[in-house]
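Sequence in, structure out. Go.
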Amino acid sequence: MEEKVCFRSGDFELEGLFESGRTARGVVITHPHPLYGGDMHNPVVDAMCRAYRIKGVATLRFNFRGTGESEGQHDNGVGEQDDVLAALSFLTESGFQPVDLAGYSFGAWVNALMLQREGRSENLVMVSPPVAFVDFASIGRLPELLLVVTGSRDEMAPPDAIRQMLPTWNPSAHFDIIDGSDHFYGRHARLLEEVLGRHI
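Output:
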């Protein structure tokens, strides 16, 4: 069962939900855009957490600065990179190793930005990276990238646009398209869990 935790990111205290797994492996899971209602309780984030827990991986999801009860204010993906680093440190300092990183939508973008700055994750999973919504031009090589998932009807993370970026990010990364799904996965959450479960 998840327990509420708090950890610091610079001057701010962030709230999170942590659940220990059956292994020493951990994962930080990041949420979609907070200015559009995204937070750690998002249904896609729920599905991602379930997929990792089935594999025995400890999960930490948290609210970015200015979201929910996390202190601070939204920082357009800049300060949020520090939040991701703080979450990774929380898990490593709690004894989990290795620690993976998984993000949905805005969270996937922030994770990729952070890894461009300092690579501190074993594996990276991106669910619906919003390449048609935010600027991914500064995202180069992502050697940690294990898996990218999107929906065939996802207008914010169009499969064709992602396919063009994969050779730059990591040509050996797996790319799965969930037929019929849009950006929010709706009735496709279980399929998303299955896709994640095949690779994590």
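Check: Strands lie at 3-9, 12-19, 26-30, 58-62, 99-104, 124-127, 145-151, 174-178. The CA atoms of residues 3 and 85 lie 20 Å apart.
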